[in-house]
Amino acid sequence: MDIPKVEPAKRTHGIAYAIRDIIVLAEQVAKTGKKMLYLNIGDPNPYGHKTPQQIIDAVYKAMLDNHNGYSPSSGIKIALEAIEEDARRKSINNIVDTFITTGASEAIEICLTALLNPGENVLIPEPGYPLYSAIQSKLELVANAYYLDESNGWQPDVDHIKKIINDKTRAIVLINPNNPTGAVFSQEILNEIVEISLKYNLVVFADEIYDKLLFDNAKHISIASLSQDLPCITFSGLSKNYIAPGFRIGWGVVSGPSSKLEDYVDAINKILRARLCANHPIQYAIPVALLGDQQHLAEINAKLKKRRDIVLEKINKIEGINVVEPHGAFYAFPSIDVADDSHFAMELMKETGVVVVPGSGFGQKPGTHHFRIVILPPEEVLAEAFDLISEFYYHYKGQYL
Predict the structure, then answer these.
(1) Which distant-in-sequence residues (6+ apart) come within 8 Å of 85 by Cβ?
(2) Are residues 226 and 191 in contact, defined by beta-carbon separation less than 8 angstroms?
(3) pTM for this structure?
(4) pLDDT value at position 27?
(5) Is the peptide bond preceding residue 177 cis, with omega within 30 degrees of 0?
(6) How many distinct helices (H) and strands (E) make up the chain?
(7) Domain 53-291: assigned CATH number
């Protein structure tokens, strides 16, 4: 007797997450005893970067003080006040609402869910963080991706954005500093996007989770600070700047004209109430993180710059692999002269144990090929990994190109 399968929802068919999906093969390769060099996950902690002690102490104290029940759905008052103070430091002044979530990813999903109906679209960057395309599939939205311009330092391609806006476009996503490229967007480009957003009545989703991880004197500008009239949600959290991704604490700051946003904010809060609250005791880390000692930022940024420089030096010696110099976050997105970057990444892993994420997992212009690496590992690991990449690529070209 045939037993019928339980059919999954069609909305799950398009969900992929290349950063995590590649781990499945990596685990198989590791079982063979091969030494693995992981350049794939944007998690600082496994690479030796530590969560600041005062943040850990704040959570521990909150637990001892029995802040272990539910919190208000939007978050605790002292944490919300700290988030808003941090936003004002970035010149975001017209704040309409603020809320705390289980990581910035939950904030992003809630805000997309509260705004978009099936068949509508949000402008998502390519290359871009795979979370957005996964949510797009879940919400049954129509794909509408705009390109980042590799020839212009991976800045958003404003001309392409203008061409693809249609009557179903409701919002635009900006990831700045950018994952996966490490680009920091210029004020000129941001001003152009403000103009486009106002002209077409688009909500801006400003993913600024890496806004304090900068080098080469790069300056981060929050797009919400450039116009009082811009409907914008600025997302951030503890995971990257404060080296605590496992805390799963993020937030959103809604800014713009309150009369224009009131119904949308109400919809966001309906969803927030329905899922109860973010982790209560960990919310007590937020004011300590944002308003307390920031010394760890100088330390990690100095390390990242040094490790970025090693990557640039190594890549510049490999004919056929090129990279736009990143100035923020902790990624690089080299281009590579191959026919299939997924095949390259898989074969590289099986042969050398070096784990990178193929560019196809982030989206890219047709005919181009890339891979993403993190610049978090110790200097000797990065040097060894790129020596192996160089040697492997030389043989790979002879076999497949």
Answers:
(1) 290, 291
(2) yes
(3) 0.93
(4) 83
(5) yes
(6) 12, 15
(7) 3.40.640.10
